[in-house]
Design brief:
Helix content is 73%, strand content 0%. It is an all-alpha fold and 89 residues long. The longest helix has 18 residues.
Length: 89
């Protein structure tokens, strides 16, 4: 049986990226890992993940949670670096 960590490791996403998809789509993390894997290989999927990560970071800023915002912006930047075909702002 595969664990959540196994699924995350196989999908080429980080835990934070999977958490972003899970939160946005209201999915269990293990399902979000599978969705994220498919998104990475689909047209527009990388851009969608980038947008999800940035939106979560901006929401944390708007809520005044600067620590969470910093963590989320770091995840956004790391993803944009790993996936250079993602459009960056």
């Amino acid at each position: 049986m595969l664990s959540l960590k196994d699924c995350i490791d196989m999908c080429d996403l980080t835990e934070e990226e999977v958490a972003a998809i899970a939160e946005t789509e209201k999915l269990p993390a293990i399902v979000a890992a599978q969705v994220g894997c498919a998104l990475l290989r689909s047209e527009g999927g990388v851009e969608y993940i980038r947008c999800v990560l940035r939106t979560r970071a901006e929401r944390a800023v708007a809520e005044g949670d600067l620590h969470t915002a910093a963590v989320r912006f770091r995840a956004y930047e790391d993803f944009a670096t790993r996936c250079p075909h993602a459009v960056t702002d």
